[in-house]
Design brief:
Elongation Factor Tu (Ef-tu), domain 3; two-stranded antiparallel ribbon
């Protein structure tokens, strides 16, 4: 864990069907002051695992955050709702948000030739850009590339349509 970690005891609660640990605003504020969106953290529960899990704290709406415990975390630590656990949290300074796949040159070229589509692309949220670039990364054939670039430019130009199993309007 990093030097600026926070160690505390907590009770595993259940929200719907999701086990979580409530992390107070003041504790999160010591990790990353003023943070209001999902917070990338490294976490260990009851000193497990040796190399901390990478996950996000999710804003609760009251300044606090939820640390949801996924299946791997629960299996490795054997915690259930009502368990009292030791939690180690640290801000994940190594986290890099945004597209994980580079923009293909064939898509970049097409965007540069269409002002309206380029502006809509720039206005998309990072998660939507990441989703599109991940989709484009798996396209292999020139025919599929051409088909998908055409669809992408159509919806990014503000035309209504479907692309990537989603209905697009006004370029988003």
């Amino acid at each position: 864990m990093a030097v600026s970690s926070s160690v505390f005891k907590a009770v595993v609660e259940i929200r719907g069907i999701n086990p979580f640990i409530s992390v107070g605003a003041s504790r999160v504020g010591r990790l990353k002051p003023g943070w209001r969106k999902p917070l990338p953290v490294l976490v260990r529960i009851d000193s497990q695992p040796e190399d901390a899990w990478r996950t996000n704290l999710i804003p609760a709406g009251d300044g606090g955050f939820y640390l949801y415990l996924n299946g791997v975390m629960r299996a490795e630590t054997r915690v259930t709702g009502g368990s009292v656990v030791s939690v180690e949290l640290a801000f994940n300074a190594g986290y890099r948000n945004g597209p994980q796949h580079p923009m293909p040159s064939w898509f970049s070229k097409a965007l540069n030739e269409n002002d309206k589509a380029r502006k809509s692309w720039a206005a998309l949220t990072p998660s939507r850009k990441k989703e599109v670039l991940r989709y484009f990364a798996q396209i292999k054939s020139p025919e599929a590339r051409a088909r998908n670039v055409s669809k992408a430019l159509h919806v990014l130009s503000g035309q209504p349509g479907r692309f990537m199993a989603r209905t697009w309007t006004n370029g988003s």
